[in-house]
Amino acid sequence: MTTAFDGLPPLRQVLEAHGLDPRKALGQNFLLDLNLTGRIARQAAPLEGATVVEVGPGPGGLTRALLAHGAGKVIAIEKDPRCTPALAQIADHYPGRLEVIEGDALAIDPASLCDGPFKIVANLPYNVGTQLLLNWITGPNWPPRWTDLTLMFQKEVAERIVAGPDDDHYGRLGVLCGWRTDAEILFDVSREAFTPPPKVTSAIVRIVPKTAPLPARLADIERVTAAAFGQRRKMLRQSVKSVGGEALLERAGIDPTRRAETLSVAEFVRLANALAA
Ligand code: SAM
């Protein structure tokens, strides 16, 4: 039997052995190149001894890279029970270091799975990737217990996460991420790297929580960004009418003829605080 660098079977063989034909409904675009999963794992450094929560391990390409690069413990949440036997083989190979949770990551708070600080590393299923990120960055306690996120998204979503004012991709996601985190795109991953190839290019994003975001209530940030970007081409005096209109803009010291996409995160924070005033 052929083995890969870590002594486990090559991933293509794993897919065949366990009948893991990729399912679109589960966002299954697998990475079978262990050099690439190794490169992704290294972006989450330092891994030595760290606790990592991985969403959607699938056949385990990224999981194996995280363990080979020294992660002390990987807790992997996978919705597809067909992946369990392949993951069990990895768990046997790294005794006590891989815990697999069969379940829906949308319904699981990763902080409930471990004590102390942890990282989240994932090649996310595209259909729920944005929602998962929103769940992790809108937690009630800030800073969160996760120390960093290293995540694969469709490139277009990655661009929305890191976008700032006057960028076409700037919107609610960019404001929320810019308020609470520092986010950067590390590198693109071409369609051909996946089995099967998705329709668009992907990108790896690294997200680190700000220890002290500008003070504001999350609910207020959400209200003002929803209103402002709900009609992004309109002037603010029109788009924020439902949450206070010109009076709100005046309290926040923001010119009512500006448009949402020109406001900095700090200005959205001023708007949110004016709402609460
Ligand atoms: N990590 C593997 C890789 O890089 O080859 C698989 C990545 S694939 C893009 C996404 C994985 O997430 C699939 O294994 C899929 O079954 C799993 N998945 C989809 N929806 C999920 C959910 N709601 N909760 C947990 N896992 C999910």
From TrEMBL:
The keyword Ubl conjugation does not apply. It is found in: Cytoplasm. Its EC number is 2.1.1.182. It holds the Pfam family RrnaAD. It comes from the Bacteria. Its main location: cytoplasm. It is an enzyme of class 2 (transferase). S-adenosyl-L-methionine binds at residues 29, 31, 56, 78, 104, 123. GO terms for molecular function: 16S rRNA (adenine(1518)-N(6)/adenine(1519)-N(6))-dimethyltransferase activity; RNA binding. It catalyses: adenosine(1518)/adenosine(1519) in 16S rRNA + 4 S-adenosyl-L-methionine = N(6)-dimethyladenosine(1518)/N(6)-dimethyladenosine(1519) in 16S rRNA + 4 S-adenosyl-L-homocysteine + 4 H(+). GO terms for cellular component: cytosol. Residues 36-211 form the Ribosomal RNA adenine methylase transferase N-terminal domain. CDD domains: AdoMet_MTases. InterPro entries: KsgA/Erm, rRNA_Ade_diMease-like_C, rRNA_Ade_Mease_Trfase_CS, rRNA_Ade_methylase_Trfase_N, rRNA_adenine_dimethylase, SAM-dependent_MTases_sf. Keywords: Cytoplasm, Methyltransferase, RNA-binding, rRNA processing, S-adenosyl-L-methionine, Transferase. The keyword Transcription regulation does not apply. Specifically dimethylates two adjacent adenosines (A1518 and A1519) in the loop of a conserved hairpin near the 3'-end of 16S rRNA in the 30S particle. May play a critical role in biogenesis of 30S subunits. Belongs to the class I-like SAM-binding methyltransferase superfamily. rRNA adenine N(6)-methyltransferase family. RsmA subfamily. PANTHER family: DIMETHYLADENOSINE TRANSFERASE (PTHR11727), DIMETHYLADENOSINE TRANSFERASE-RELATED (PTHR11727:SF7). NCBIfam families: ksgA. HAMAP family: 16SrRNA_methyltr_A. This is Ribosomal RNA small subunit methyltransferase A. The gene is rsmA.
